[in-house]
Amino acid sequence: MKFYDRKTELETLNRNREQSKKSACFTVMVGRRRIGKTSLLLKSVKGQNYLYLFVSRKNEPLLCTQFQKEAMEVLGLQIFGTITQFHDLFEQLLLFATKEHYTLIIDEFQEFDNVNSSIFSDIQNLWDK
């Protein structure tokens, strides 16, 4: 995808990524549908260590299994057993981030509400620890 007039946005994302190397950083990107948010995020992490998760309307255990597999393949994260709850998955992802710097991109984050609405408070609780 060709990017037009996205230099400022890429610089901001790169600055946030550099800042996250010193201290955990949480960045939210919002905007209308089909304007290139995902493409912009993926361009900003090109050549970097990142994990991309797409939240679809599957049940929680199925999504957790899928996300666990992706985290293990992409990041080399060691998880023994099968994770079936988002809370446990995000706990593992945050724990891994204390040892290895990476960017986590969650596409269609709002879809968590259709799968398990408690994930929002779970993530907040884990983040605040």
From TrEMBL:
Return any one Pfam family short name. Answer: AAA_14
Which residues fall in a coiled-coil region?
Answer: none
**InterPro entries with a match to the protein in the record:** AAA_14 (IPR041682), P-loop_NTPase (IPR027417)
Start and end of every AAA domain? 27-119
PANTHER family assigned to the protein according to its UniProt record, in alphabetical order:
ATPASE (PTHR34704:SF1)
State what protein this is by name. AAA domain-containing protein
Q: Which organism is it from?
A: termite gut metagenome
